[in-house]
Fold this sequence. Notes:
- It is a single chain.
- It contains nine helices and seven strands, in the order H-E-H-E-H-H-E-H-H-E-H-E-H-E-E-H.
- By secondary structure, the chain is an alpha/beta fold.
- It has a single domain, classed as HUPs (Rossmann fold, 3-Layer(aba) Sandwich).
- Strand 4, helix 7 and strand 5 form a beta-alpha-beta unit.
- The longest helix is centred in the last third of the chain and has 23 residues, at 177-199.
- The relative contact order is 0.16.
Amino acid sequence: MNDREQSEKLNALVLFSGGQDSAVCLAWALERYNFVYTIGFNYNQRHGVELKCRKIFLEQMTKSFSKWSSKIKDDFVIDLEFMKHISTSALTENLRITNSAAIPNTFLPGRNILFLSVAATLAAKLSITQIVGGMCQTDFSGYPDCRNDTLKAMEKAVQLGFEQPFKIALPLMFLDKRETWVMAKKLGGSILVDLILEETHTCYEGDRSTRHLWGYGCGECPACQLRKKGYESFVSIGLK
């Protein structure tokens, strides 16, 4: 039995924020696993509109893709608002967003480590061993908890801590944003690309007042600039 055949007999839990990267990871998981559950987090993020987007995106995925609709199972949103009391970040506070330092002030210490710990706890309850995340160290902002080494160490930690054969799948880890759009097109065609453009949210400012060619956002924050650059590169190679 090859890896693809084996994965089709497994269930997965996808860390789904409502953003571009996790939306592509959701499609990737739906293509590979038997049933797919989703988990999101409310951590008092200033772009909390993503929590509304994720609900709409899940509904539209069910309606738009008959091959995946029966695979989409329960969705969980976990309250982690306590993070605002124990850390400082422009993602959760009204601070001017800047990438001037080695680690930008949008880095929220412990976020991905906490997300994966909570996801593993839920996965254990659901008897799921496959956890899928959209972390990426190619087009990332310098966040140390998005590095492959960090996440492989986290995989080992939850395996030992739960005595479970957890696998943390990171399909975007070594892709840039153009390649992420290419993956979306291969997985779900123009329908998925258009759905990501219309119904996901990546802007750190939580701005959905302006619809750009690459989606909604302020157009100025690092997340918008990265998404814009990747989409323009994707379009330039004639794959849109």
